[in-house]
Request: fold
Amino acid sequence: MTTSQPIDVQPETAALLAAGEPSPTGLRRFPEGFLFGAATAAYQIEGAVAEGGRTPSIWDTFSITPGRVVGGHSGAVATDHYHRYRDDVATMARLGLNSYRFSISWSRVQPDGAGPANPAGLDFYRRLVDELLDNGILPWVTLYHWDLPQPLEDAGGWPARDTAARFAEYAALVHRVLGDRVSNWTTLNEPWCSSLLGYANGHHAPGRQEPEAAIAAVHHLLLGHGLASQAIRAQEPDAQVGCTVNLYAVSPATDSPADVEAARRIDGLANRLFLDPLLLGRYPQDVVADLAGVSDFGHVREGDLATVATPLSMLGINYYSRYVVKAPEPVDGTVDWRGGGAVAPWPGSEGVEFVKRDGVPVTAMDWEIDAPGLAETLVRVHREYPELPLYVTENGAAFDDVVDPDGAVNDEPRVAYFDAHLRACLDAIDEGVPLRGYFAWSLLDNYEWAWGYTRRFGIVHVDYETQVRTPKASAHWYSDVIARHAVTDPQGAEATR
Reply:
């Protein structure tokens, strides 16, 4: 079944490449070997939740719980990628993608979260990888993108230490089957979301509001990453294994000491709580102090942090926006960082206020668009932590896309977003950051978690009733960037590397 429209390099670009001449306006080029890809997640696109031996994950359970997801939407059908993956790979090939980052559904591969593999589930991913390789696209596997098998949640979920051990067994199982064809492995996607949104404020699956359990989940996710890395390398010593974290540039609303303190707290909880153990083998002591009223970190055992800090081959960074924060208003001269015990994803700093700046454009998610924050984040990681290859593994924006009467989707705001953020990548490279690739989020419009189908991130539009795919203007633009290996330089100067 063919549901994708052809994607061609724009005529002026094709002529430019054929002639071998630089663009009249000049190009700002990316380094040789820089990867351009797109990313997705299993529960958001696959559908077929009860086919091929797959059993429920925490997102299946969460999505059918009344009041949890906008419109009561679920990923039961999603974008039907399970049945349409060949067409979707053909779309990627027409785009010219160098790489495709996708996640494995744990409950499709290992229905009980433990024990033997499900051959039908593994076969789906084997066929997907083969299809990618046949089309010259590098497969980039994420082992965990939030969809914990429900039996493991029933046994305690990520706050339970045993889940980390089960994750390592699952990682070894998948690598044993796909390791001969997949060279790049990401263990976790955004453990901040899995832990704090899932177990602190309950906005994500499994929907628990238990801050102490959330801090234990932080550690056991990171421990699971380390154990999984070791399990993969036990089978393939030179395997390229990384982890993906969602990072933010964080700024105080003013230069007042209280607002600076608010920024320190949120930076600690959003960024350093994950970067420090992964890259330095320790938790930041100021963040541990901030969390003293929530957790005593008694779940951390001797040797755990050495396992967490198992050397990475690369670090994935997901970036969407900047946080601008201010301190709570003092009461009787005292600042209450706990915010009166409000349920929030920021245990220990619930009272911090997130500020929206006047005149700063926002996406349909109400996230401020701040491309310089991406360069700032990349440079910060490069300068403050041990050097290793970095990849922007997610970057993108939701907008209220409309299909025009002629069938086109002219998403110019998304084109502008990608253009600004790719320039920010080049700015970071100019500062010496070893940035090796960029993955647009997302390839397809899809199930956007608690927002259901009400937010569109894709560069390819999906009609959820018919499953017809329509490449948007941003897809054509990105295809041109990949073909040129460059963005147009508005200054008219040819910059080469």
In short: The longest strand covers residues 138-144. The CA atoms of residues 314 and 389 lie 5 Å apart.
